[in-house]
Amino acid sequence: MSRDDFYASPFGVTYSAYAERPWLNRLIALTVWGGDTRRYYESMSAIREVADGGTIVDCPCGAGVALRELDPGENLRYVAVDLSPSMLRRARKRIDRRGLSRVELIRADATGIPLPDGSTDLFLSYWGLHCFPDPAAALVEAARILKPGGRLVGSTFVRGRDSLRQRLIRPDVGDFGKPGTAEDIPRWLEAAGFSEPQIRRSGPMLFFDAQLA
What we know:
Layout: H1 10-19, H2 22-33, H3 38-43, E1 55-58, E2 77-82, H4 85-98, E3 103-107, E4 120-126, H5 135-145, E5 146-157, H6 164-167, H7 184-192, E6 194-202, E7 205-212
Parallel strand pairs: 1-2, 1-4, 2-3, 4-5
Antiparallel strand pairs: 5-7, 6-7
Helix pairs in contact: 5-7
């Protein structure tokens, strides 16, 4: 199975189902990874801080979990990007259920998003960096399409030897691409042009919030 079809597997179906249920996702994360996902859902409030008429890019959008913060008729451009056709289909169903008319779905790689330079106010990058073959390049692409002072909010798994759970995060195994370490993420962010990123960690999960300088 190719990587872009990985989420068509039973794992992808299960992952999409529990990601939409914060209580269940938190229980699974605590049990399997020893981390707390509350910050993931809390950080989605950044969507409501974007000014009227602003643009949000959600890459990878997955099944569209972050759409929970959008209201029908809201005057925002929301661009949901993913490489997985199955995830985009699930996101479409979520869009239709919620009656969201201003969400655009795009199938694209995280290092080649078809939007102009400096066109985006908020970039969401949830649970994607550890899946990408070049996560540092994905952050450079996020910086490219963000406006000066634009905001990046996201989460990722980080590899390391701090715990047995972290040792399970191995490059090119399952849906992992080239996951970075806890030290790599702030370094990659700063190299891409983000200033003073706020980093929080829970087990092997790392949450980041940064502005483009």
